[in-house]
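User: Design a sequence. Structure:
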């Protein structure tokens, strides 16, 4: 995704010429493909693997909410940042921005840092979630207590 963002941003003037607009759409479509193939997949796979079993649903919900909040900030941030540097060319009601080319470069840099931070997430390496969290270590030898009332019911 980072590579395609930079491939769109750096030669941006090349892509905006009328003859190259289909190429721009193809490149932009590939960034969306890789967005769903990479970062979008990690937002629901990684939290399911790294949180302890007893806290997994709560932490997974918090992670999902943080991801949605980040998407909102990114969408509105790009909308404002992509406005032209020239005040006469901005959309009505928006302040001047840094332009589409610089916004795409900024997105590429953010994607790169996102990739680096994703590589810092611990890998499960075939271990179960309980082994990773150490949940079974504290009372591995202890039998669960079963009351007579539970057996009779």
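Assistant: Done.
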């Amino acid at each position: 995704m980072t590579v395609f963002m930079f491939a769109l941003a750096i030669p941006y003037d090349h892509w905006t010429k009328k003859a190259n607009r289909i190429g721009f759409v193809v490149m932009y479509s590939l960034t969306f493909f890789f967005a769903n193939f990479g970062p979008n997949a990690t937002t629901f796979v990684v939290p399911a693997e790294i949180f302890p079993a007893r806290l997994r649903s709560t932490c997974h919900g918090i992670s999902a909410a943080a991801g949605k909040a980040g998407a909102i900030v990114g969408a509105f941030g790009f909308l404002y940042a992509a406005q032209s540097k020239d005040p006469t060319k901005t959309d009505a009601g928006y302040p001047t921005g840094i332009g589409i080319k610089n916004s795409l470069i900024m997105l590429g840099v953010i994607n790169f840092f996102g990739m680096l931070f994703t590589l810092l997430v611990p890998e499960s390496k075939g271990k179960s979630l309980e082994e990773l969290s150490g949940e079974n270590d504290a009372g591995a030898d202890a039998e669960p207590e079963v009351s007579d009332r539970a057996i009779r019911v």
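The first helix runs from residue 2 to 9. The radius of gyration is 24 Å.
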